[in-house]
Amino acid sequence: MNPDAVRTVAVLGAGTMGNGIAHVFARCGYSVILRDVEQQFLDRALETISKNLDREIKKGKIAEAAKSPVLASIVPVTKIEEIARADFAIEAVPEQLDLKRTVLREADRVLRPEAILATNTSSISVTELAAATQRPDRFIGMHFMNPVPVMPLVEVIRALQTSNDTFETTMKLCEKLEKKPVAVTDSPGFVSNRVLMPLINEAAFCVMESVAAPEAVDAVMKLGMNHPMGPLELADFIGLDICLDVMEVLFEGFGDPKFRPCPLLKKMVSAGWLGKKSGRGFYVYGGK
Ligand SMILES: NC(=O)c1ccc[n+]([C@@H]2O[C@H](COP(=O)([O-])OP(=O)(O)OC[C@H]3O[C@@H](n4cnc5c(N)ncnc54)[C@H](O)[C@@H]3O)[C@@H](O)[C@H]2O)c1
């Protein structure tokens, strides 16, 4: 498919990632169909997009006059049939294999045969998800980073079945979104999480073994390695449950003990200490 033929994009799931993806496509002139299961999730997403556009206006990234047309180009829908006219669709529903398979099959059923279907999964095999559809050659991974309007990277993941045409179109589409696509092939954790999560896991081992307190581990990485955030601050921001899930995917996927999840991480997740979102992780937030 010629990337210039992509005009209308469907985003499935209006959560953290879905609203960011919709924001970026709309800001770059695409017509967006944003689908979630309930109107309240769509309302919340549009509110978030509106606030984030205000932030971009303040920073001088977009003109104030652009805000209304950008918001108006996002059509919120709850019925899957309403995505039928999309040329390109991106799935961003929660990271559960069965849910993703169901949503992708539904989208596959209603989209035109030539439309490309992408997943924003951060750890599930893109090859396995492609196999759940009738268009495995027109299926690809598009791993946006959070927050989507700010982060330049899109990890573009080729499933075993992805055609060259689908791959080329997706890479060019990322560039049209003013993102930096980096191509990788499908493998557990891709590159981003395969490199990042073991760093976080090892930082947790340092705390568990009393090598250093969280503040000290983070200070070493910030002051010595020039990381903008320490690995444990970052883990709290991502969510310790998500970090643990990804470590489990790496451990199972490679069958290599080097990916063994840190027992302290497991214990903290069992305690409900999930990081910033629960008020406590390696650090304590909001006076909790
Ligand atoms: N949050 C991150 O930092 C991050 C980064 C990269 C990739 N991801 C990946 O992006 C995906 C989405 O993550 P998120 O953090 O945005 O999740 P989220 O929980 O914030 O949002 C998911 C949304 O999907 C909706 N949903 C559930 N079932 C649906 C259905 N059948 N059809 C349409 N919408 C449905 C939910 O109502 C919710 O609004 C996951 O695969 C995750 O691994 C997340």
Describe this structure in words.
With 288 residues, the chain is α/β, with parallel strands linked by helices. The chain is 45% helix and 14% strand. It has helices at 16-27, 39-58, 67-72, 97-110, 126-131, 164-176, 192-208, 214-225, 231-238, 240-254, 263-270; strands spanning 8-12, 31-35, 74-77, 88-91, 116-119, 139-144, 153-158, 180-185. Strands 3-2-1-4-5-6-7-8 form an eight-stranded mixed sheet, with helices on both faces. A hairpin with an 8-residue loop joins β6 (139-144) and β7 (153-158). α7 (192-208) packs across α9. The site of nicotinamide-adenine-dinucleotide has 21 residues, from α1 and α4.
What distinguishing features does this structure have?
binds nicotinamide-adenine-dinucleotide; alpha/beta; 288 residues; eight-stranded mixed β-sheet; 8 strands
Helix and strand topology:
Elements: E1 8-12, H1 16-27, E2 31-35, H2 39-58, H3 67-72, E3 74-77, E4 88-91, H4 97-110, E5 116-119, H5 126-131, E6 139-144, E7 153-158, H6 164-176, E8 180-185, H7 192-208, H8 214-225, H9 231-238, H10 240-254, H11 263-270
Parallel strand pairs: 1-2, 1-4, 2-3, 4-5, 5-6, 7-8
Antiparallel strand pairs: 6-7
Helix pairs in contact: 1-2, 7-9, 7-10, 10-11
Nicotinamide-adenine-dinucleotide is lined by residues 12-18, 35-37, 41, 92-95, 99, 103, 120-122, 146.
